[in-house]
Amino acid sequence: MNDDDLLIGWKAVARYFNRSEKTLRRWHKKYDLPIVKLGRSIYCSKIGLAFTFDRQAAYQRAQRAAVAATARGAKADVMNDFARAQIGATLRAGLAARVAGEPH
Description:
The chain is mainly α. The chain has one domain (3-100). Helices cover 65% and strands 12% of the residues. The chain contains four helices and three strands; from the N terminus they run βααββαα. The protein has a three-stranded antiparallel beta sheet with strand order 1-3-2. Strand 2 and strand 3 form a beta hairpin.
């Protein structure tokens, strides 16, 4: 991981998303952002953030598809759809790491 991929402190993470620190702290609680706390400092990787939001978006798409399928009278299988989306996101993250020349 390059130093460019690492965000240090709530201010840096907030600037990266163009949001307030308060919003990022709320997102950290709600979405379980990949933030490591050491003492009073926090560290976060941009790649980890991308993976987390990819996973969250996949879960939300699976939930919307399940609601739509239920409305049509079909049986919804949210967890299988979510698992397939997570596997795809994991494979994309591994491919991105290989392209970037990082060990996966």
